[in-house]
Write a structure and sequence with these properties.
By secondary structure, the protein is an alpha/beta fold. It is 54% helix and 8% strand.
């Protein structure tokens, strides 16, 4: 009965991503320490903008109690959209279970821990290298997989993460010695001018082609850097329009990520089928290395299909 209620709640509230799982663990641990019922308002930080205790250290401490050392989320879900709403939903569920005499807190925490284990065992994406299809359609299929998973796990930006690390892997194969960062690590506060800085070129890999990105490009130009935006097909038009409005359209380059990556497969594959597949294998291998070192989600890995 309890497990069925938890499963239904998790499905209805999309609690499968690393951010939502972090919220569930922290809220449940509040109940372990303070008992039930809980007051959701007391689980907010002083400013009311974040869930109290929702950070990497606290989440990892809970996982360590259950013998798990892998990092669930670098920010513990703190920066994910909707964390407060999910916290309130968790509190409501726990209070309801308590009123019904079903709130076995230890069992509830153990149930969420099993969901974390399942998360770590999540299936990777698959790059299906079909010789009958264009390289752009092959890359598009991969990004479509990421977009589908993003819709299912609210708050986790899978498309942007996959794009960033694919571009980083491409640059590493071509030039070597690239410094990679986790996709959730913002440029601000790190001293970085972009996701990648190559010579005098500031490369921004993003799905968020809004005014904030254009302002960042303007700062690049002021610092004698040449901005290069790599984005989705949809983001391409938006970025170009905003750059036009800002009067810098002729000073920045905006490229489609599919084309940017596909071009690399053609060129380094020497425009031969065997070479393209070998280049794809090296690209995905490097991408997986980057994901393993920078991200805490093994389901971001990519398998190379037939």
């Amino acid at each position: 009965m309890l497990s069925e209620r938890l499963a239904a709640f998790a499905k209805e509230n999309r609690m499968s991503g690393k951010g939502p799982l972090s919220v569930a663990l922290v809220v449940t641990r509040h109940a372990v320490r303070n008992g039930l019922p809980l007051d959701a308002d007391t689980l907010l930080t002083e400013g009311g903008g974040q869930v109290a205790g929702l950070g990497r250290a606290n989440v990892q401490a809970i996982l360590k109690d259950h013998g798990i050392d892998r990092v669930l989320a670098e920010e513990g879900g703190r920066t994910s959209r909707g964390s407060i709403g999910k916290m309130r939903a968790c509190v409501e569920l726990l209070n309801a279970l308590n009123a019904e005499g079903l709130a076995d807190i230890q069992a509830i925490e153990a149930w969420w821990i099993e969901r974390v284990r399942a998360f770590f065992l999540g299936k990777p994406f698959v790059l299906r290298f079909d010789a009958s299809k264009s390289l752009r359609s092959i890359i598009r299929d991969l990004l479509d997989q990421a977009e589908k998973r993003q819709r299912e796990a609210t708050g986790t930006m899978y498309v942007g993460t996959v794009m960033q690390h694919l571009v980083g892997a491409k640059l590493d194969l071509v030039l070597g010695g690239i410094t990679h960062h986790g996709a959730s690590v913002a440029d601000e506060g790190t001293g970085r001018d972009a996701d990648f800085l190559m010579g005098d070129v500031a490369i921004h890999v993003t799905t968020a082609t809004g005014e904030a990105l254009i302002r960042k490009c303007q700062r690049n130009l002021e610092g004698s850097l040449r901005p290069l935006i790599v984005t989705t097909t949809k983001g391409l038009t938006v970025a170009q329009g905003l750059a036009e409005q800002a009067g810098i359209a002729d000073r920045i380059d905006v490229l489609d990520a599919e084309q940017f990556i596909a071009g690399n497969l053609y060129e380094h594959g020497r425009f031969e089928l065997k070479g393209r597949r070998e280049t794809a294998e090296r690209l995905i291998g490097k991408y997986n290395e980057v994901v393993e070192s920078c991200e805490g989600d093994p389901s971001l890995q990519i398998n190379l299909g037939k």
